[in-house]
Amino acid sequence: MKKLLLVFVLFTSVMAISSCDKDNDAPKEDQLVGKWVITSQKLNGKIVVDECLELKTITVKTDNTVSQEMYKKNEMNKCIFDKTENGTWKNKGNNVYNINVGDLDLDYTVTFSGNTLTAVASKEEYKIELKMKKA
Q1: pTM for the predicted model, two decimal places
Q2: Domain interval for residue 9
Q3: Which residues of 11-43 are buried (b: 16+ CB within 10 A; e: fewer)?
């Protein structure tokens, strides 16, 4: 479940909307590109409680790579850096993004609103929903 949430987070990082202006041959930077902070996450409709959540950052790059800094609680109940996960992302069109991290390969539907986004992915036995804001 932890790895699934990590992949989802990475996916959110991976989520990007590529667009081109008809009057300009140069592509615009995707809305997803940048550094994001997870503000909430749900698994199968239930809020996942994680005091270290807002320390977790996801960085989405224009070269279709994504990285996520993960934090966990130590034995003194303090949030500490755990690891960095790396992966790739692809815009499949219609606000659907594929995120491939480790052994997980998921498609997410992403909705942008100002400097926030919501990403939802489903697989046979689970549904993940992430809300993020630009860092």
Answers
A1: 0.74
A2: 2-17+31-134
A3: bbbbbbbbeeeeeeeeeeebbbbbebebeebee
